[in-house]
Design goal:
Blueprint (H helix, E strand, L loop, with lengths): L1 E2 L7 H4 L3 E3 L18 H6 L3 E11 L1 E2 L2 E2 L3 H12 L8 E10 L6 E13 L3 H18 L4 E11 L1
Antiparallel strand pairs: 1-8, 2-8, 3-7, 3-8, 4-5, 6-7
Length: 154
């Protein structure tokens, strides 16, 4: 798989780089995302215009590891893969973030999920379903979400 240089992001696309949690309630609903890369630019690289969505899943519940490897795999198999059967990538990570309730810095094992997909409203709805399901199932304050336009070739 080859990913190519991304053009500068427009203000509209930058506004889509958001953290889905309590702060998201203050944001207007995200519009349908049209890739900000022109098809002509992507064609020059023999690639197609898509979006890259990265989701950042913390695994702690409270101060303890609450999402086991088995529970993560079950969530991935039951909720994520059926919504994105064409493929995805998961990377183990070590994340840290500021707890909005206590103000303390929290460090926790995490998973980073990367999806390459069309930027249509149906795709964005599926991404937000995954975020909401994870937050509800594993009692999370938030799931990080970054969406950007990319040129993609497989």
């Amino acid at each position: 798989m080859r990913l190519f240089n991304r053009p500068s992001l427009s203000p509209a696309v930058l506004s889509l780089l958001l953290l889905t949690g309590p702060a998201a309630a203050q944001l207007a609903p995200a519009p349908a995302l049209s890739p900000a890369v022109s098809p002509t630019v992507c064609e020059a690289y023999a690639a197609g215009a898509m979006i890259e969505a990265q989701l950042f899943f913390g695994r702690n519940i409270g101060n303890e590891l609450g999402v086991s490897d088995r529970e993560w795999t079950d969530f991935l198999d039951r909720e994520v893969t059926p919504r994105f059967p064409n493929g995805l990538t998961v990377v183990d990570a070590s994340g840290h973030w500021r707890d909005i309730q206590t103000g303390h810095l929290v460090r926790e094992p995490s998973k980073i999920l990367t999806l390459l997909a069309d930027g249509d409203p149906a795709t964005l709805r599926l991404i937000h379903e995954i975020v909401d399901l994870y937050k509800d199932r594993f009692h999370q304050q938030s799931v990080g979400l970054a969406i950007r336009p990319v040129c993609v070739s497989f």
